[in-house]
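Hello,

Our lab assistant flagged a job as stuck in the queue for most of the afternoon. It eventually completed. Since we weren't sure the result was trustworthy after the delay, we are filing this so someone can double-check. Below is the sequence as submitted and the structure that was eventually returned. Let us know if re-running is recommended.
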Amino acid sequence: MSIEVRNLNKRFGNTVVCDNLNLDIPSGELVALLGPSGSGKTTLLRIIAGLEVPDSGSVHFHGEDATGTDVRERQVGFVFQHYALFGHMSIFENVAFGLRVRPKATRPDEAEIRRRVMELLKLVQLDWVADRFPHQLSGGQRQRIALARALAVEPKVLLLDEPFGALDAKVRKELRRWLRRLHDEMHVTSVFVTHDQEEAMEVADRIVVMNHGRIEQDGAPDEVYDKPATPFVLQFLGDVNLFRGRFGHAPGGVEAPRENEVSYVRPHELAVLPEPTEGSVAVTLSQALTVGPNTRIEFKRLDDGSYVDVELPRSEYHLLRERFPLGPGATVHLLPRRVTRFAAETEQADPAAMI
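-- returned structure --
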């Protein structure tokens, strides 16, 4: 089922949380609403679900206006961050709950309820815990049960509000990969809220980056990362170094940087050179920290004293140390492999400035 959001506005007092939002989500797509706290992503999700009412604008499901439709009639499954399972019910009964509370005319018989619940428990790989209770399960298992419960009512749309936010990092990584595989099997139109950039990049077909109630950019993960529309998008999707004025060369005839531009370079897009070259900047090494396969080096610029981060594969860092001195206080030169530039005043994207 497709979702269309049109001219959506919502305020809480004097705070604007949805500012004239327009968004199209095709049937079967998995979309991430990504942004910091207070960006409006959860409010947008709740309006789509029918849990919040917009001040103006509309929400359409498959071309039909659903703005005034009761939440129980929207055929939406909702998964919350903190599971919201019923502690006094078995896992089986938790998943069956949405089916049992249906009006008698549409309620499946007991045999059909059992078939559907066990089918879903197998789908989430937890059919062996059907007789247990929520407190007997791990956090990751409880979240999978919450997802099975949302799917039991055969929703046309699945909405997830930071579904892995209460879990530790290792479990989060496992579950988000599992969610991607599950979506590929079921193809239910799904929208999930997250503030985790890595999570959005790994799971979603499309990312909608939000800030202060507005959509900053809407596109495929590679598009929003490689071609950010605004400085906010660029800085929110990972670490970045800022350079004002002239910085970087211009290969292939690309226009050289201008004085009124700000250059943004990610730590892994900086080359470390022993000698100066056109467009490089002189720095001294402050400290280096190796964590797992990567080494992060902090340099201090000689011209203005600001700090610059460089990230290298551990093996490349060791090769550099063999080629020239690279200890604390050593002077080297940084040259960007890729630069994204925005005008300092308007900070509007300049597609020609991607080098």
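-- support follow-up --
The delay was a queue issue, not a problem with the job. The result is valid. The two ends are 40 Å apart (CA to CA). Residues 250-255, 346-355 have pLDDT under 50 and may be disordered.
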